[in-house]
Write a structure and sequence with these properties.
It is built from 15 helices and eleven strands. By secondary structure, the chain is α+β, with helices and mostly antiparallel strands. Strand 4 and strand 5 form a beta hairpin. Helix 5 runs antiparallel to helix 8.
Length: 396
């Protein structure tokens, strides 16, 4: 079995994830494709991940790709997480991951509707939900785009309340609005459009999916066909990786992962005692790269691309990840994490290195921190999921 060492894996990160200075992406779509999809749970991540990979990128260029050219689309995907995906690849993500999520979430919502007394039983709750969904989708089609509040005015049943954690200290009675819109989105019928506010806003207008993807997102591929395409894309960007890495990243079962790896004819390789996989013909080493440094935002797809991270994270997990496994802002050098960064109220980028890296790398880090301070131009980005080091650097 061919061995692929840590140095080779790190070289692949720099080249394939478009992080080295000589291999950066030409535009936001190419940047997204280089890592399959951009994390979008935190809206700032999309813009910062693009800016780390596209020279001269601005917020406006990413917004243009998302909302004018519509070559990128924001959608629910792997692990029930929101991603920004190249629009042409969106049907693959839908069939490979999102359709299964939609089925599970529908069952859960029907259960909650019945428990809240909105309908007498699960069967009636299912019919109620279908009726509200169709009415909401019709209202959205008539408007062309709309906010959740506008759709609630068109379909008053969206203002029905659920009863969550009844009897608990954290009990709540949220409107059903967000759950219905989530369900329509998960089934590929509606998509998130422009934000309500700045590029840091997590509130969006909604639009019919057909306005973004001709013919919509569904019924283009079988689940098995889509999982093969998604596995191939992941291996191209993140390979070599283990079956456990791919299973975690995609949110699949072990059986689905094994079937997809078999279908792509993945080649087993030795990752220092672990079995990893690459695509057929991808065993050849990458061309070595010049030294490089990159500042990546919280939840960037690169550090979140593998389940097993010691080979690029080292001993820094406790400083750079929160308690639920979300990565904060990181500093990379030549394919490994060497530190983190944050912003105090004044807006400049502060950093801390977690290991000795030498004068040359330190100078590259200092120059990159200055570049990011200029790029952000006083805008302070506070990650939705904050790491201990980012919190520390953001004080004062």
């Amino acid at each position: 079995m061919l061995r692929i060492g840590v140095d080779e894996r790190r070289t692949r990160i720099g080249r394939r994830h478009r992080l080295g200075p000589d291999v950066q992406a030409a535009d936001p779509v190419e940047a997204a494709a280089s890592v399959v999809a951009l994390h979008a749970t935190d809206p700032a991540t999309v813009h910062l991940s693009v800016a780390a990979r596209v020279p001269g990128s601005e917020v406006a260029s990413t917004e243009r790709a998302l909302y004018d050219d519509r070559t990128l689309i924001r959608m629910l995907g792997m692990r029930r997480t929101v991603f920004v995906v190249p629009t042409q690849f969106a049907p693959v993500v839908q069939a490979a991951c999102t359709d299964d999520i939609a089925v599970k979430q529908r069952k859960l919502l029907v259960k909650h509707l019945a428990e809240a007394g909105i309908a007498p039983d699960a069967d009636a709750a299912g019919k109620w939900l279908r009726a509200v969904e169709e009415s909401t989708a019709t209202a959205l089609a008539l408007r062309g785009s709309a906010t959740a509040q506008e759709l609630s005015a068109d379909e008053p049943r969206l203002r029905s309340r659920l009863s969550m954690a009844e009897g608990k200290a954290y009990a709540a009675q949220p409107y059903v609005t967000s759950r219905v819109l989530f369900q329509l989105s998960a089934e590929g019928r509606i998509v998130r459009g422009r934000p309500l506010g700045t590029w840091l806003s997590s509130q969006h207008q909604w639009s019919p999916a057909e306005d973004w993807v001709p013919g919509g997102l569904g019924d283009k591929l079988t689940a098995d066909e889509a999982r093969v395409k998604l596995a191939r894309a992941w291996l191209s960007s993140f390979g070599p990786g283990t079956a456990a890495d791919l299973q975690w990243w995609a949110g699949w079962t072990a059986g689905q992962t094994k079937k997809a790896l078999t279908a792509v004819e993945a080649v087993a390789v030795d990752l220092d005692g672990q079995v990893g996989y690459v695509l057929p013909g991808d065993e050849t080493p990458e061309v070595p790269m010049e030294p490089w440094v990159a500042f990546l935002p919280a939840l960037d797809p690169t550090p979140m691309g593998w389940k097993e991270r010691d080979w690029y994270l080292g001993e820094h997990k406790s400083r750079l990840f929160d308690n639920t496994g979300n990565v904060g802002p990181t500093i990379w050098a030549d394919g490994r994490i060497i530190g983190g960064w944050g912003q105090p109220e004044s807006g400049e980028v502060r950093f801390e290195l977690l290991e000795e890296v030498g004068r040359e790398t330190t100078e590259l880090v200092e120059a990159e921190a200055a570049r990011w301070t200029a790029w952000l131009a006083g805008v302070r980005v506070t990650p939705r999921f904050r790491s201990p080091l980012e919190k520390h650097l953001s004080q004062g």
